[in-house]
From TrEMBL:
Pfam families in alphabetical order: DUF1176 (PF06674)
Superkingdom of the organism of origin: Bacteria
Organism from which the protein derives: Sphingomonas leidyi
Classification via InterPro entries: DUF1176, IalB_sf
The protein's name in its UniProt record: DUF1176 domain-containing protein
Length: 336
């Protein structure tokens, strides 16, 4: 019990970071000052002439004096063999695409060189082994996004900054905060059955009846054992083209109450979730702004015996081609 109390004390209420937009780049930093930035397509979308050359890029930098860069590039079309990464036609790195030909991953040293070049560049391009242009990415706003990371991580004015460089030593950069630790119950036991009459009552309570009026059958309810004699109930409550709504309840002793959350994900109100899933003690949900999945909000939770606690939140406000939703909150679940 002492360990549980300590873990709870270490877990402050979630305070997710904010996503910022700079030109053709979005950037966000989480509660440990780990920062990510991702490129976006032009506001009006790629033109037909440019469609074959579109790609997105994502850059991550860890917090702390030794925080390194990591870059991944995602060409819209398959690319094979070695790829030359250039900024304003100046080679920065030469690396192989992955086996599927849809991702190019840079090592830390190459990522750092690319970040330095991006700070004053206008266009990032990828060419294949024959020299053919296979992808291009706008760098408009990338310098401002890198400056945002410098500020969030306390790098401004130090030799470690990407843009806001200064003479101060790396030791002046604050260390990375420790991830919050969340005490969570490990799922155990068997899920209880949900009596039809109770389901009908919960659907009425949640306003779900209108969605299924006139239909011969309704989607099955998900039932998952939480441990301690409690069961997570996910009741379908309507759907759109690519988002499926559920209401979360906790069933115990034949009675059900709305599931509590330490922070609403913004996908719905109260106990409403979108595209909910359950896997090994983690309750996940995500809302897609449109079918291609290039914008939306996602969250993951664990059950602490009383309520669901946020362990991750990712978001992308801009529907502009990037399927890399940026992380704005993280915590470490500790199952018992």
């Amino acid at each position: 019990m002492l360990m549980l109390a300590l873990l709870v004390a270490l877990a402050d209420d979630p305070q997710p970071g904010a996503l910022k937009l700079y030109g053709d780049w979005a950037v966000a930093c989480d509660n440990t000052h780990r920062c990510e930035m991702t490129s976006l397509y032009p506001p009006d979308g790629p033109s037909d002439a440019d469609a074959d050359y579109q790609a997105t890029a994502s850059l991550t930098r860890a917090a702390g004096p030794e925080g390194s860069f990591a870059v991944e590039l995602y060409p819209a079309n398959t690319v094979k063999g070695r790829v030359s990464v250039r900024v304003d036609d100046v080679p920065v790195a030469s690396v192989p695409a992955n086996a599927a030909g849809d991702t190019v991953t840079l090592a830390a040293a190459d990522s750092a060189r690319l970040a330095a070049a991006m700070a004053n560049g206008k266009r990032l391009t990828l060419t294949d082994a024959s020299g053919k242009l296979v992808a291009r990415i706008s760098l408009a706003g990338s310098s401002a996004a890198l400056r945002h990371i410098d500020a969030d991580q306390g790098r401004a004015g130090t030799v470690t900054a990407a843009v806001a460089k200064g003479a101060r030593a790396a030791s002046a950069v604050p260390g990375a905060p420790v991830l919050p630790r969340i005490a969570a119950l490990r799922p155990s036991g068997a899920a209880a059955a949900l009596p039809p009459a109770l389901r009908a009552s919960l659907e009425q309570q949640g306003g779900c009846n209108d969605w299924y009026e006139g239909t011969e059958s309704r989607p099955e309810t998900q039932l998952h054992a939480l441990g301690g004699g409690k069961t997570l109930v996910l009741i379908p409550c309507g759907a759109g083209a690519y988002n499926y709504n559920s209401l979360a309840f906790i069933l115990s002793g034949g009675k059900a109450v709305e599931a509590g959350f330490d922070l609403s994900s913004g996908e719905g109100e109260g106990n409403a979730l979108v595209n909910a899933g359950w896997d090994k003690g983690v309750l996940s949900s995500y809302y897609k702004g449109r079918g291609v999945g290039d914008c939306g909000l996602g969250a993951s939770y664990v059950w602490d015996g009383t309520r669901f606690r946020l362990i991750e939140m990712r978001m992308m406000d801009e529907c502009r081609g990037s399927t890399n939703w940026l992380t704005v909150w993280r915590a470490e679940p500790v199952f018992r």
